[in-house]
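User: We ran a pulldown and think these components assemble together. Before we commit to crystallization trials, I'd like a predicted model of the whole complex to look at. Sequences follow.
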Amino acid sequence: MDEREALRTVDLTKRFGGITALNKVSFDVKYGEVHAIVGQNGAGKSTLVKIINGIHTPDEGSIFVDGRPVKIKSPRDAKMLGITLIHQERMLFPNLTVAENIYLPLLAKKNMKAGISINKRMMEEIARKYLGLVGLEIDANAKVKDLGAGEQELVQIARALAEEAKIICFDEPTSPLSRREAERLFDVIRDLKKLGKAIVYITHYIDEVFLIADRVTVLRDGSKVVTKPTTETTPEEITRFMLGRSLEEFYVERQEKKTGKTPVLIVKDLYTKPSTSTGVPLKGVSFELNEGEILGVVGLLGAGKTELAKALIGAEKIERGEIYLYGRKTRVKNPAEAAKLGIVYLPEDRKNEGLVHLLSVKDNIILPLVDRLSHGKILRNRRIEENVAKDWIIRLQIKTPSAETRVINLSGGNQQKVVVARSLARSPRIVIFDEPTVGIDVGAKVEIRKFIAEVARSGVSVILATSDIDEALSLSDRLLVLDKGRALGIYTRGEIGREDLIRILSGEPLKA
Amino acid sequence: MERTTLRNIVKRITSADEFKPLLALIALYLSSAVISSYFLSVYNQKILLLQATPLVLLALGETMIILMGSIDLSPGSTMALAGLIAALSSNYYGLDIRLSVLIGLLIGALVGLINGLAVTVAKIPSFVATLATMVGARGIVLLITGGESIYGLRGYEWLTDERFFVANMVWIMVVFVIVTYVLLKYTSLGLKIYAIGGNEEATRYSGINVDRVKIVTFTLAGLYYSVAGIMMDARLQAAYPWTGYGSELDAIASSVLGGIQLSGGIGSPIGSFIGAYILTLIANIMVLLGLNPYLQWVVKGFVLGAAAIALSRGLRYVK
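Assistant: Here's a predicted model for the assembly, 831 residues in total across the polymer chains.
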């Protein structure tokens, strides 16, 4: 570490309407250092990094780059100062090639001698050079949309390097990545450190902090709690700082196991057609789901978890295979029919497939019920709708100013609770949760896990697709392990432990 | 306490979807009254209402489609086709006027149904699907008429007859505005329309039959356009083959002026009613001033641009 300060913020404050998102936060990062910022959802992490990158402008406070005061009013200003952001929602052009993606932002920099015409060979050369720096061996002419999530993130880093960024901010970079991809990312970040880059690293995951960060800053409710070198603190202490209370239980261990023996769903040798979305098609998956059972579905990104879930509700085209629902052979045509048959799906992609952001909390919850709650199925009955919505708000402890608040104004955890409420409002017999606790704060995670256990206890069958293996192990009665669209095996609770599961997922054979 | 409730009331009014369009309409009314002394005369106001009426119907139908995040280019042609078929049924085939009107309405609904099926079953983007019906329906009209108008329509007088100061068709339009408002804000179909416009995928995964909602809404919109077609028959006492040519753009413009977001999910049909009225008013005042009629287009273009800027500014505060 060369100890030179790259960036410093002094008393940054940002308000949105009446809410103070960031309250007098001072923070600094040195060249050759990884400085992690942790906190629950709504703690102000993203706001801070967005201010540094010119996406928001601060109401109060100042920013210094290389010791000089600067004004950052737009992402372009930030770029000119050598600051770049690797974003949660990856900011690439999926329709363009890798080389074009790396090259395009360079055109925005004045000092580039890129003329009006683009020299294709030079573009590819530049791309290959920086892809090499991040250790990515892919064709520079591949379309970005054909890459996996991990590869896309590395392309973003390559682009940052091409822009000669000095200060690189990561906002939850590992949330869409598999464990192996995340480890590869950490290696790249360690290389960036060696290159003398200043790294700001935002994350939910405390274990990541201790893997790669030199210092850690904890934010809570918009204010800074503490900054400490990682060598002088522990994960437990950081968790306590984050939650503001001691950590009781991250994972909900289910005690009783009284699942019925009647299978409600039998899937035999299911194949799906390859679709345009990123995942792989299913290649022969079979399993049974019993009444009141939680069947965990685990696998790395691209294992086919979401494809399996969507195939069951008719949102993914089935090539062959048989599905028996409540003992009858069925082929579900679409999600509406699935809902009628008592199967609901809680999408992984909350933003694009889960919520209607413009509608109120109430309308989001009662949406699938609106016909049933209306007079003569037509004229809406506000009072009944409100009662139903309020029941769910209380049951799931959704923190919202009122039932009429637009969901866009809620925090991620509470938005997810709204989706959960909506999925269950129809009293389904089978619920498919797809990554129900990804990208939400710890408190909400625990509450949602408790609720999933409660749902199963009431006799509903649950399919829980998750990449959090501790979540899967603690909640599931049985585990279905998927890999590249194939079933690697089904394990009963207690049959395998955490280490075994990691070994299976990393492709090693299970010891006898 | 008193003051805070008052402030809340003011805030609720000013943040309503219809507030800005209404303000614009009032401003236009005031300035028009100043510019032309004839503008506020009873006769002119009646003309204005009559002129606005068919466009309001088109705008209401278009609004339902735009709220779903789709677009409909067929209002003008559908209106012409429905008007023509009704006229032919009564004048050419001598059918009862009530039956003729019903056939006209069904034709409009049929075009809407085709749009709906094209968008859902054939999965054609609404822009392209309705472009096809727009061109196709106009083609049928021209084929049938050979480009000639059908004059001397009888039996439509009851639409232009006055009751309580204004023509019956104006009252019908008012009823449609109210019904559309209730439909969108107080029925389950309305919520589904807003939900689809807000996030179609989320609505699908929540178990709503999105395709069915789209088919129903497109059909309903087609019905609205055909009502406008019948009204044009009554007003002109003729079925003119180029009726509604370019009206799809007026219908979309009315929605935009009324604060309907083209990406779907935001806006009120009252807003589009006001939008349609504003567009008609601009044409009216320019005629009163004896200005070059082609200037109307230029002015409308500017008004639309200004409205788009004003509304997008406002939206930043909403979000």
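The two ends of chain A are 46 Å apart (CA to CA). That may be worth checking against your pulldown data before setting up trials.

User: Thanks, that helps.
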